[in-house]
Amino acid sequence: MDESPLQKTLLSGLISDDLLLQCMHCGMCLPTCPTYNVTKLESSSPRGRIRLVKSVAEGKLEVNDTYLNEISFCLDCQACETACPAGVKYGAIIEAAREEVSRENLEPLKVRAIRRFGLNFIVANQPILKIVARLIYFYQASGLQRFLHDVGMFKMLGGNLGAVDKMSPKFSKRFSSDMMSEIYTPAEPARYRVLLPLGCLMDVAFADINSDTLDVLIQHGCEVIIPRNQGCCGSLHAHNGEQKKGKELALKTMELFKNYDYDFLISNSAGCGAYMKEYGHVFDESENENIDENSMGEVTESQSKEVTGEENFAVKFSSKVKDISEFLYETGFRAENYNYEGRITYHDACHLAHTQKITVAPREIIKSVGGVKYSELNEASWCCGSAGIYNVARYDDALNFLVRKMGNLRATASEVVVMANPGCMGQIQHGTEKYDHKMEVLHLATFLNRAYKKKKI
Amino acid sequence: MTPLILSKIGEIVSKKNLLTDPVHKEAYSYDGTPLLSKLPEAVVFPENKEQIAQIMELANNENFAVVPRGSGTGLSGGSIPVDNSIVLVMTKWDRIIEVDEENLTAWVEPGVITETFQTRVEKMGLFYPPDPGSMKICTIGGNVAENAGGLRGLKYGVTKNYVMGLEAILPSGEFLKTGGKNFKDVAGYNLRDVMIGSEGTLGIFTKILLKLIPKPQKSITMTAYFDTMVDSGKAVSDIIAAHVVPAMMEFLDHTTINCIEDYTKIGLPRNSEAILIIELDGMGAEVDEDATKVVAALKKNRSTYVKVASNEAEALTLKAARRTAFSALARVKPTTILEDATVPRSELPVMIEKVQNAAKMFDVTIGNFGHAGDGNLHPTCLTDERDEKGIQNAHRAFDYIFNEAIKLGGTITGEHGTGLAKKDFLESSVGSVGVDFMQKIKKSLDENNVLNPGKILTMKPKCEGALPKNREQIHDFTHTHNH
After folding, report:
1. What's the domain count of chain A?
2. Are residues A342 and A222 in the same domain?
């Protein structure tokens, strides 16, 4: 077809006609959509949103507040992609729609502030992120945070600020990047050579998980490389309508890691793993598409070619990315080294279950650990409401999903809930405190490292 | 529609239940039917039957159309808005009111999701067999309105076999109760069965009484592979001839097998020309005896491999995979047009060949699957709505398929309904007397043609717009029309 009607329109270049037409509006996505489940409105469903985006793209529907609200109400959990027999790339559609909304400055000021300042300035810049994280750490550790809550400062400021503040992760005293060496070798002959990215927020707010991941990889017989001067992989940006910044950070990440020789790159954060697995696709597409001169940001076209060109480096890069659970399971998890007495359940992170389609590996690993009494969580792959920056941008809605998750968690009567994504951990931890539910929230790596130490005793 | 009428609707259902934002109107402009859509004037969520009655009265007075809607998964356009219409959404009516274990019945509201209801009664050892492909999200109200079928039609029948009673608001706004918990009831005309399958043109259901049966205790599920489609068709005939009635006997062709496998990755045989998925169920040992007979019939008809599901989880996965067939076919081309021509089951092998002919004659890609046991096929045309010629060819292919089905003593639609999509073929299927009978029923119940007008039948009014009502109007009317 020479010219599709969509190409002249608002969303042109962002979403292709084919992507939108793939949806044959059968409705199979509706029962799996958390937001449809809340409102029971077609416009809050994946099928409905695709229709809305399509109509806006075709110029049949004007963008108004209701549209903007539905686009930002979506969690982008991609449960609908798992449910879709036709293989519709809903995530790509909603992310492109968000990009458009952001480019046209149509979103609420609060969201724009998080996006522009929080994501593009702070998170995208590791040295600045570290300074901010240090300040937050002192704020949290000094007792100032508690003091402000006690005197009702946040209530005076209004809004959800107080709740959001309580929900933010406890920042680490020491960052992983400052504590860790560049290379670790196991006691036994190395079975694999793996590269461990420290992440942006993981580095400063979840340093313990990085160190547990390192320990587990060494226990698994891996030689572990931790490159210096790492930054953000671009996942938070790409998944929140900042494709340009996302691609820029992706290029930087590949630039840095290509200096190392390794078998696998191990991710302990579902969103990052998902995006790094998409690199190959992201750069493959941008070669075929008509990229306008701004779309690559500060990265010049020749730089981009250098990384993506020749051997199609991005595709190769992505093929080596493995989630920690996926890697341990596929390379033969050595359950005999682990023991954990207790009732355990598992929560699926959306970017792991729906985007990366990893659901069996983490469960099989947990179940194989001696002493574990495993009980399956009802609606385990139903979004907890964390969803990137969602619980900051739409606190009340996020709480709605959290309540549902907490109810299901309570029903398992487990002592520990394991997951493999820091975003979910922050959210569910907040849930256990808010609803006074005694349950430990552990990352899979932390759970395994504890189980390893328990076995040794 | 004037703001005044909208505000009157708002007064009836309260403002929060009336949506007029263009975004919401867009989101209720379609259902599961390809190629058809239209914007309604408003989307309305009634809360009780009094509100529905008042809306119908208002529609008659103000001359607008009311289009009832469940989850919007229909495939014949039954819930697509028409000119000057409001969409009446029933999804919030989702209570299971009563499960009566002594009478084996259940009262439900029309918005109850089919699968939710099934799960609930199966926990009690009971069984509600109708299982349309969209059962995870479709509503009981929609199932009754379309007289939906499903995979278990051969042994257990379709929705109409499980509806014992109904409560509905008629187009006039009157409240009808028909049927009940009596297994025998011959008082007057069988109005219940007139309402079932009326596609939202004769009434809006407010409560439905369903029949339940004991849940089968044992089942065996198997997949048989074939090198030719005709062999699979003959195997079906032989199984029936051996006096075995499987709970399910599903046919999938090569294209469909591959699309489903792309989505589910459960190990379907990509090289087979056809497969049959067969489920046998019952209370005990007879299931094993049936299985022996079925395997013999399959082998006799050159099935290359028969795989028996080793546990219930495997059987469930297989059946769930089959239910995705229609949507999975959308992987090949952006537009999928699904039909459900149905023939007496002895004619199935012939009909399968006719569908293959149609694909060749009109140069279109057709994926074929369906309920082999009850002769209900789903030839699905894989095309692209931007390609005008392709769409024309698809329509010509379906004209051919419908005509051939009718010649074989079949029907234009087995379970999806007539709606907008198959209206033009209705007369060839039911005859002119049949159409006339239906028009008379519609006319007597819906004088002003306000409830889901234009679906199933085209009512030919003598004039445009609503018929005149009071004396002055009649005077004006005759006056204008005499000149």
Report:
1. 4
2. no
Q: Are residues A180 and A322 in the same domain?
A: yes
Task: Look up residue B446 and give its DSSP letter.
Answer: -
Pair A234, A320 in one domain: yes
Residue-number span of the structural domain to which A226 is assigned: 176-327
**CA of A21 to nearest chain B CA: how many angstroms apart?**
5
State which fold the B219-328 domain adopts. Answer: Alpha-Beta Plaits (3.30.70)
CB B442 within 8 Å of CB B201: yes
Distance from the Cα of A88 to chain B's closest Cα (Å) equals 8
Name the region of A432 (left: φ>0; alpha: ψ -120 to 50; beta: rest): alpha
pLDDT of amino acid A392:
79
Strand, coil or helix: what is B43? strand
> For chain B, which ranges sit under pLDDT 70?
461-483
Contact A264, A225 (CB under 8 A): no
| Signed CA dihedral, B16, B18, B21, B23: sign only | positive
Give the nearest chain A residue to B19 (CA atoms).
A41
β strands within A210-333, DSSP E: 222-225, 264-267, 321-323
Q: Which fold has domain B3-89?
A: 3.30.43
Tell me: pLDDT of A294 over 50. no
Q: Give the class (CATH, top level) of B96-214.
A: alpha beta
Q: Answer yes or no: do A207 and A155 share one domain.
A: no
Q: How far apart are CA B144 and CA B160, in angstroms?
A: 7
CA B151-B157-B161 angle, to 5 degrees, is 135
B327 and A28 Cβ atoms separated by less than 8 Å: yes
Distance of CA B49 to the CA centre of its chain: 24
Is the pLDDT score of A290 beyond 50? no
Distance in angstroms (rounded) separating the CA atoms of residues B413 and B343: 10
Best CATH choice for the domain B333-421 from the list 3.40.50.720, 3.40.50.1000, 3.30.420.240, 3.30.70.2740: 3.30.70.2740
Q: What's the distance, Cα to Cα, between the start and end of chain A in Å?
A: 68
State the greatest distance between any 2 C-alpha atoms of chain A, in Å, as a whole number. Answer: 70
Three-state DSSP class for residue B167: strand
Whether the CB of A150 is below 8 Å from some CB of chain B: the reply is: no
Give the start-to-end residue ranges of the domains of chain B.
Answer: 3-89, 96-214, 219-328, 333-421, 431-482
Please determine, for residue A145, whether its predicted confidence score (pLDDT) is greater than 90. Answer: no
Do residues A200 and A175 make contact, with C-beta atoms less than 8 angstroms apart?
no
User: Is there a shared CATH topology between the B219-328 domain and the B333-421 domain?
Assistant: yes
What is the ipTM, given to two decimal places?
0.91
User: Which of the residues B37, B113, B118, B327 would you substitute to probe the A interface, choosing the one with the greatest number of A C-beta atoms within 10 Å?
Assistant: B327
pTM of the model: 0.87
The secondary element (H helix, E strand) that includes residue B245 is none
**Residue A67 forms contact with B (CB below 8 Å):** yes
pLDDT of residue B245: 95
Question: Within this chain, do residues A344 and A365 fall inside the same structural domain, yes or no?
Answer: yes
- C-alpha A113/C-alpha A276 separation (Å) is 26
Q: Which residues of A touch B328 (CB under 8 A)?
A: 85-86
Model confidence band, residue A200 (pLDDT cutoffs 50, 70, 90): confident
- State mean pLDDT over A291-309: 47
User: What is the C-alpha to C-alpha distance for residues B115 and B359, in angstroms, rounded to an integer?
Assistant: 35
pLDDT at residue number B482: 44
User: In CATH, what number is assigned to the domain containing residue A413?
Assistant: 3.40.50
Coil vs helix vs strand at A322:
strand
A445 vs B283, more confident: A445
Measure CB to CB from residue A66 to each of B23, B34, B334 and give the nearest one.
B23
Put simply, whether A276 touches B (Cβ < 8 Å) is: no
Q: Which residue in B16, B26, B331 has the most chain A C-beta atoms within 10 A of its own C-beta, making it the best mutation to test that interface?
A: B26
Q: Which residues of B touch A41 (CB under 8 A)?
A: 19, 24, 27
| Whether the Cβ atoms of residue A208 and residue A268 lie closer than 8 Å to each other | no
